[in-house]
Amino acid sequence: MPDVPIPSVLHSRGGISTIVGAVLAVVAAWLLFIGARDASLVEWECAVATCGTNDPRGVAPMIGVLALALAGTLLGRTLRTASAPLMVVAGAAGALLGWRSALDQGLVHVESIRWWLIAAGLVLSVALVLTVLTSVRELRRSSAYWVLLGLRSAWGRVTDYQNGDGGRCTGTVHFADEAGNRHQVRMEVPRDAFARPPRVYYDPVAPTDLGRLRIGLPGRPLTAKARAEQLAAVKQMLPLPGDIAQEHATMQVAADGTRTTTSTGADGTRTTVVTPDGVRTTTIVGPDGTRTVRSTSSASSGAATETATDVTTALERLSALHASGALTEDEFQAAKAAVLRQ
Length: 342
Description:
The protein has 342 residues and is an alpha+beta fold. Helix content is 42%, strand content 24%. It has helices spanning 14-37, 60-79, 83-104, 110-140, 143-148, 224-237, 311-323, 329-341, and strands at residues 45-47, 50-52, 152-163, 169-176, 182-189, 199-202, 214-216, 248-253, 259-265, 268-274, 279-285, 290-297, 303-309. The strands form 3 sheets. Strands 8-9-10-11-12-13 form a 6-stranded antiparallel sheet, with no helix packed on it. The longest helix has 31 residues, at 110-140. The radius of gyration is 30 Å and the shape is elongated. Residues 1-5 and 300-309 have low confidence and may be disordered.
């Protein structure tokens, strides 16, 4: 099977956000260092209930905190839950180093900042512990760790949502290995994997081995347009049979896990509702107005089907087609008789 080129929209940009976030974190720590070191040198002018200063060192701590928040957001795409405590470590360390420098230069006395030093030290200690714990957890869940274990990665798609015990959900994972062979595996997956394309990490020797199969969610594009382009690119690389008839499709996942998919194509409009207990209800409205409702449940092998036809709508559409010349008299009468028989 020939290699399929990877669209540029699927190339990861996490490295850029990580570099920018790291630079911002360093700048933020430096601003907090400056603010703590030179706090006693800033001259403030107060009037009534407000105070202000023209010295930029006076606003350095505030700008530093804002820069830390932005850096944590950017680093969160790669470090995830470890980014927040790491930013606290950077901020507390910067402030402590600033106060230490102020003490060494004789700008302040230890008695005046004693409680600030104790508070910052406690915050730094707790943040360090949280950073280590979250870093270990995220490392075990990271793509880099899985690659070190010898797994290969590929873009995937997840279909057939179903809720499991304990709030977990399962789905059918579709992916192609490095040789171009297609695979589909039923397994437990993150809920967000139904809303956006996941990365599938598999064993090249046994791609469908559940013990070695992992699902990861890459950083989500920031704009709706970029997210739509990413989904379209994955569909192009990994088409499924249901994609051919669909000209437009939308999917919504409710808080209780109910998934509603609506697609519009040449064969009409199809709406599928899958409830957490595995009941799938599909409603198809054809171009002639015929409405078919089919309900199936994972708990039973049978299916209940009900067909309802909006006769008035169907006849109006047939009349319009006949008036426009799209249907001959014989075709119109045959189609009308078919609708009336339903």
